[in-house]
């Protein structure tokens, strides 16, 4: 970890970290979309890819407006979450149970991003970076909305489909 001595150093480090996370996510989302069986889930991953690209653009705007230089850091948390998604795809047969686990993994990602953006907003506010705070709040709202959509899809359809699929394949006695 680079030396962090000031509040601005902390802001730059965390902004660099979430930038790395979003970049990693742009590579993972198309794979998740292809791995999903439920059409709304696949479409949700595709839509979130577009949103994520917009979120990266917002970070670029913040960097330019504040005259900051991002650090070369790799978000290890996102690396781990993306790896978990890869394991889900490799280890679980395509179908409703995999969709359930893809949603679980995607919600873990969203909760990480919600925490990261919430913290960045606090730092931006304390540093007086009002434009950065406004842009970060836009992203935070998108992340919260994605989490809500995932939760709604899980509770309204996907989890029930997985439960029904499990009862259909119970072994004969």
From TrEMBL:
Keywords, sorted A to Z: Plasmid
CDD domains in the cross-refs: YciF
Tagged with keyword tRNA processing: no
SUPFAM superfamilies registered for this protein in UniProt: Ferritin-like
DNA damage is among the record's keywords: no
Record's protein name: Uncharacterized protein
Organism: Asticcacaulis excentricus (strain ATCC 15261 / DSM 4724 / KCTC 12464 / NCIMB 9791 / VKM B-1370 / CB 48)
């Amino acid at each position: 970890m680079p030396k962090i001595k000031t509040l601005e150093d902390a802001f730059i480090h965390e902004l660099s970290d979430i930038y790395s996370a979003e970049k990693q996510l742009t590579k993972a989302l198309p794979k998740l979309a292809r791995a999903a069986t439920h059409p709304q889930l696949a479409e949700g991953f595709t839509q979130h890819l577009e949103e994520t690209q917009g979120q990266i653009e917002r970070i670029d705007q913040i960097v330019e407006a504040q005259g900051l230089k991002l650090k070369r850091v790799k978000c290890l948390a996102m690396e781990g979450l993306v790896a978990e998604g890869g394991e889900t795809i490799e280890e679980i047969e395509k179908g409703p149970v995999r969709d359930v686990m893809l949603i679980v993994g995607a919600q873990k990602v969203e909760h990480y991003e919600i925490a990261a953006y919430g913290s960045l907003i606090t730092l931006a506010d304390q540093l007086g970076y009002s434009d950065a705070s406004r842009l970060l709040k836009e992203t935070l709202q998108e992340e919260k909305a994605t989490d809500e959509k995932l939760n709604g899809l899980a509770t309204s359809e996907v989890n029930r489909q997985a439960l029904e699929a499990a009862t259909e394949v119970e072994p004969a006695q």
